[in-house]
Every structure is written in C-alpha cells, then in structure tokens.
Amino acid sequence: MKIETLSCVVKGKNDVDVVTQHIDYDESSRDQTLVQITRGGICGSDLHYYQHGKVGNFEVKHPMILGHEVIGKVVKTNDPKLYAGQKVAINPSKPCLKCKYCLSGETNQCETMRFFGSAMYNPHVDGGFTQYKVVDNAQCIDYPQEASDDVMAFAEPLAVTIHAAKQAGDLTGRKVFISGVGPIGCLVVASVKALGAAEIVCADMSRRCLDLALKMGADKALHALNDDFSAYAEHKGYFDVSFEVSGHPSSLERCLAITKARGTLIQVGMGGAIPEFNMMMLIAKEISWKGSFRFIEEFNTSVEWLSTGKVNPLPLLSKVFGFRQLEDALKAAANKDETAKVQLSFE
C-alpha cells in the first residue's frame, strides 16, 4: 500500500520546506502500524537543525523529516491491542533490543538507537512531522479518546523529565532546586512535584520563564542574576537535589554551591566543554553528579500522567501553527522572549 504524505523537512541551515513524499505500508504486517499524525511539538533539536543545519557533529546531508514529539490516530494495524481511529502517542525511540544495554533494560543507552528526526546516521532517521507515518506497534501508546491533543503532544518532553527526576531517587519530602526553567525545566518542576518534592525553588534569567515555573508548581522563583542565593549556600548547601537544566557553566557552579553535602545533582541541560569547573567542591561535598538522557518506561508513565491530569502542561503552550506554516512556527519557537512551546497541527 503506497501512501502520499506531506512532510516537514530540513535540507540545511535555514532551509526547510513542506514536500510531498510517498511511503509504503505492508497491510499484512504483524509488527507495524500506519498512523495519521495529528500534532507535534517543536523541540530544541528541531531548532538546531533549522538554525545551524546540524545538532552537535550530526550534520544534515540530505532532506530529513523533523520532529520527535508527535501523537496521532491509528489508520491501519494488525495489532490486536490497537484499532483504527485510536489515539496514540508515538514513542520516538527505536532501540535494537539486542545490544547489552537493551538486554539489561537500559534501552535509552542502545548502541544503535534510531531516534526520530536524527542526522546521526546516513541515511538519516526521519522524524514525525508528516501526515502519515509507519511505526512499530510497540511505539504506539494508546490513551483515552477524550484526551486533548494540546496536552498529549507533551508526552515525549514530559517523559524526559520524569526520567531525570527518577535519577535522583525518592523525592518524597525533599528540597529541590531547578536551574533553568525553559519548557524542559518547567516540566522538571511538574515531575518532581508529582513525585513528592516538598519544596521547589527555581532560577532563570527570564522573568517570563520564572512565572511559568510558578504556574507549573514551583514554590519560589529567583532571578539568576539579580537575586541573592547566599543563604542557600550556608552550612555546605541547602537542597537535597538540584537539577541543572540550562547547560551553562555558571548554572552548574551555583548548583554545586547550594546542593547540600552528600546531595545529588542531576545534569539535564546540554552544553559544550566547561572551561572552569570547581571539581574540589564536587569532591569535598561528596555530591553525586548524574547525567540524564531521554527515557525508558517513563514514556508510558508520561502518557498516563497527561491523560489523567496528574500533570497539566498547558501553561507552557504558546501557539499552535498549521504544519504548512513550518518556517513561521520554527521562528516563533526560536523567540524565547515570547514563547515557551510551539506545536504543529497536521489536521
């Protein structure tokens, strides 16, 4: 079965287009499902591919479909757990299920992970910003029909933050600091609150972001430059757990200073090399510094939390564009002074 689909592709730096493509779906397949994409959220990696033609060292070498935060409706499937018209969130991870990490259940560390919208391989792995997509049955996570597209399109980024929150262990009754509250930082706020944090303090350079963090459940929001953090650094630190979500060296330094001795620091923000790093503070305070990357079973948890209302991400939704307005949507998403999360509608 051949299907015509309109896809949002990036061809290089500042070069995106909506093009007609054709995909094949084997109607006898027991393993794959044809999905009509309904909504997609624009992520930082989509912006990097648009603005720079690459993410890190992974450069766009031929047109690639963007997007990994997508939901849709089942069109055709032979999976008995799915049916035509069913709403599903699409898990953008496709691990090999054969390497040592997959076999131990650590699928986010898969050695040959094929993740939606990635130029890591050549040919690239196409993303989900397209009208129709063939996916593995296991990538389709169903949710109630009445659930809002606005809400459910947050499934992937919320999964990232639930995974990050769980890296810190039991958060019940803990004092938590979150440095950098863009969309991911704000979803960290929601995740740690849902997991029982007793006190949540945030820092950012943007007053708009800080206001959003308060709406997402933070108890206190401090300006990263103008407010005084010295009291939190007394007695070797105040917070049980800190989440560094900006990737900036000064943010990491603050987290080290105000995380208590033998506390935990979760690194979520991505950045380059750190030119000056206070290793002695990390050592002397015996801080556990842990990275957090994507998610595993937390994608299913995210779908459940969103569909049941345990987390409400809507304060973060700034605007929804039709997918044919791809470049306008990307430019809006890049304007951090005015927008948090921008979504594309494919209906």
TrEMBL record:
Its EC number is 1.1.1.264. GO terms for molecular function: L-idonate 5-dehydrogenase [NAD(P)+] activity. The lineage of its organism: Bacteria, Pseudomonadati, Pseudomonadota, Gammaproteobacteria, Pasteurellales. It is an enzyme of class 1 (oxidoreductase). It comes from the Bacteria. It comes from Exercitatus varius. Its cofactor is Zn(2+). This is L-idonate 5-dehydrogenase. Residues 183-307 form the Alcohol dehydrogenase-like C-terminal domain. InterPro entries: ADH-like_C (IPR013149), ADH-like_N (IPR013154), GroES-like_sf (IPR011032), NAD(P)-bd_dom_sf (IPR036291). Belongs to the zinc-containing alcohol dehydrogenase family. Keywords: Metal-binding, Oxidoreductase, Zinc. Pfam families: ADH_N, ADH_zinc_N.
